[in-house]
Write a structure and sequence with these properties.
Layout (H helix, E strand, L loop, with lengths): L5 H25 L5 H8 L3 H7 L3 H9 L4 H11 L4 H18 L1 H8 L6 H24 L8 H19 L7 H11 L15 H11 L6
Helix pairs in contact: 1-2, 1-4, 5-6, 5-8, 6-7, 6-8, 6-9, 7-9, 9-11
Length: 218
């Protein structure tokens, strides 16, 4: 862009902002797998312009969501300071699921894996650290079952999270009921049966989330 005229540079910046704004709208409505040509149409530009600014879907997603999940990160930090780990964990998960219910793009970000998206990698890492810390403290405090692993919980949350958009089509708060059932299953219970099979490793969990995620890469 160094040899462009000031007008051309202003047009390029305007188009980039239009594309980012419209992508945010489309992703919120349809998820991260939304057709890119729909985004270009809403921005009033051609597909070539979109690809000139964002050569890959991952580049566009990263631009759109960079810094957009600050409330989730803040909720995680608040949860970590709770004296009672169970209270911190439940409050944090309700905040996360409220975001999943409100926005299809955020849902995809939090419940799947899309390679090459720095913002996604950062929020996944922070989410994992928050849950791991609260899970370990809850187990030490005697409120969370001892045979539960971080990977068990992350996978179960992702699986439930993927169902949230479908639940909200029948009632906005329909996801609260299965989340409550899930949380009850985490608690220490002398009558609970041992969990079957082996726990997922972190690497296995990553592969599962990749297979759950959007597969259109353009």
């Amino acid at each position: 862009m160094g040899d462009r005229s000031p007008v051309a540079r202003r047009d390029a910046l305007r188009n980039r902002k239009l594309l980012t704004d419209k992508a945010r709208e489309v992703f919120a409505e349809q998820g991260l797998d939304a057709p890119l040509d729909v985004i270009a149409q809403r921005a009033g530009v051609g597909n070539a312009t979109l690809y000139r600014h964002f050569p890959t879907r991952a580049a566009l997603v990263d631009e759109v969501f960079r810094g957009a999940l600050t409330e989730t990160t803040a909720a995680g930090e608040r949860a970590r300071t709770a004296d009672d780990a169970w209270t911190g964990l439940t409050q944090y998960l309700r905040t996360v699921f409220t975001g999943l219910a409100a926005d299809r793009g955020t849902n995809d970000l939090m419940t799947t894996h899309l390679e090459g998206v720095t913002s996604l990698e950062a929020i996944h890492a922070h989410n994992r650290e928050t849950i791991d810390e609260l899970l370990r403290r809850g187990q030490k405090q005697g409120t969370i079952r001892l045979d539960l692993t971080t990977e068990d919980l992350l996978f179960t949350l992702a699986a439930l999270g993927r169902a949230v958009p479908a639940l909200t089509t029948v009632a906005p708060d329909a996801w609260l009921r299965p989340l409550a059932l899930l949380l009850d299953g985490l608690r220490t219970n002398p009558a609970a049966s041992p969990l079957p099979a082996s726990a997922l490793t972190s690497e296995q969990l990553g592969k599962v989330l990749l297979n759950l995620g959007p597969h259109r890469r353009r």
